[in-house]
Amino acid sequence: MLGLPSSNVRQGVKSLIAAINKLLKQLDMPTSLRETEIKAEDFKKEVVEMAKIAIEDRCTQTNPRVPLQEEIVTLFERVFYKN
Predict the structure, then answer these.
(1) Over the stretch 23-54, which tens digit does the pLDDT of each residue have?
(2) CA–CA distance, 78 with 51 (Å, rounded to integer)
(3) Contact call for residues 72 and 55 (beta carbons, < 8 A)
(4) Residues near 75 by Cβ (< 8 Å), separated by ≥ 6?
(5) What is the domain partition of the chain in residue ranges?
(6) The overall pTM is greater than 0.70
């Protein structure tokens, strides 16, 4: 439907990711937490609160496996501190 190369599921996913990244660049939108220019000190202060908000989000409750708050904190940290 999108006209992206997708001879198999793996290629389709890679094509979609590439198209989304291209669109983000065209719209001059950040593609990572680092690009939002959030300071590490501010991130550290707010990461637990961000995880609490994520847990309370109704979408989280419909996941096949609801993550623990600590798991969400770890996920945010991995995303923030990745190179």
Answers:
(1) 999 999 988 777 888 999 999 999 999 999 99
(2) 13
(3) yes
(4) 67
(5) 1-30, 32-83
(6) no
